[in-house]
């Protein structure tokens, strides 16, 4: 009987490519990763059978990608498998026609929308991370419509719900300045200061923005001002190489404002279109964070008095109410003019976008819907509402 063994990522890849001990490698993948993916499926309206089927598809897909040498080790195997799971599970949900906000309880045909139906709807909205305040607002509007239009029944409820969600997004600030990745024409370079806590996808979002701006014909310069975390500088450097854009960086623990100054100075000299500056996101010390961001802004203004032109907060859409709390804390210490919400690709329930747009009155400008470099999209309110209802 073959003994169980542990594999490093490199050994696992080598085993899959060579075919040596492949069965052992697959058993190791099951042992190390099945439980996490099973939990994720169960948390997102699946069952044990779903988890088993999806995991098998994840493993088969992963092995095919490795053997085709399409997995290059840009991320860990664990991260890559989880991304595959999200995409495969999302496609499965779409095939089944499930909606992120649709609940079987209030799809039952009843002659009127009564208190029980509204309670079910309220629970569905809260479960979708729409937030208590935003949910209460939606329910109140629906109650008013029910009181006014006595004929409303549950068959019309999804239509009404969609209209009310659209109204909330319409009332929230909108911005089409980045449509097709266009930039304002009255200044150059356009300086975007990017903020957010570690782990939300901030550096990855900057990399994707750089790539997409470049594809739109814009010249880009990156600034690695998150100098307190070596991995952040390394990760942004990798993105700069992948997107083929230059980067300004100093050593570990360098003054972030000095990096920002050199980046803007270099951007002016190179006559670039857009500058993206990464910053540290250490919310455990809000006073220091506020001081650091203020210093960066003051330093930039010495070169460009009206910069930064955008302060973009990156939030992880899969963390639900934690994203709301992060938005509260960041908006308390610095002016935020735009929001990018990442990881809206199957595990996220989507309602957090609605809550943020409603509560903070800050335009959501970009959403991340997958792992690919092209999966950062300019936020479109109408398309987003349609996606919530699985249409």
What class do helices, strands and sheet pairing give? alpha/beta
- N-C termini distance: 51 Å
CATH superfamily of the largest domain: P-loop containing nucleotide triphosphate hydrolases
In the sheet with the most strands, the strands line up as 3-2-4-1-5-6-7-8
Number of domains: 3
Largest sheet: number of strands, sense, barrel closure: 8 strands, mixed
CATH topology of the largest domain: Rossmann fold
Q: Give the CATH class of the largest domain.
A: Alpha Beta
Give me the number of helical elements: 14
**CATH architectural grouping of the largest domain:** 3-Layer(aba) Sandwich
Count of beta strands: 8
- The geometry reads as flat
Q: In percent, how helical is the residue content? A: 40-55%
Tell me briefly what this model is.
53% of the residues lie in helices and 10% in strands. The chain has 391 residues and is an alpha/beta fold.
Outline the fold blueprint.
Layout: H1 9-18, H2 22-43, H3 48-67, H4 77-96, H5 115-127, H6 132-148, H7 157-171, E1 190-195, H8 202-215, E2 220-224, H9 230-243, E3 247-248, H10 256-270, E4 274-278, H11 286-301, E5 310-316, H12 321-333, E6 338-342, H13 351-360, E7 364-368, E8 376-378, H14 381-388
Parallel strand pairs: 1-4, 1-5, 2-3, 2-4, 5-6, 6-7
Antiparallel strand pairs: 7-8
Describe the fold and architecture:
The protein is of the alpha/beta class and 391 residues long. The chain has 3 domains: 9-96, Rna Polymerase Sigma Factor, Chain: A; 104-171, Up-down Bundle (Four Helix Bundle (Hemerythrin (Met), subunit A)); 179-388, Rossmann fold, CATH 3.40.50.300. It has helices at 9-18, 22-43, 48-67, 77-96, 115-127, 132-148, 157-171, 202-215, 230-243, 256-270, 286-301, 321-333, 351-360, 381-388, and strands spanning 190-195, 220-224, 247-248, 274-278, 310-316, 338-342, 364-368, 376-378. Helix 5 runs antiparallel to helix 6 (132-148) and helix 12 packs parallel to helix 13 (351-360). It is flat. Residues 96-100 and 102-109 have low confidence and may be disordered.
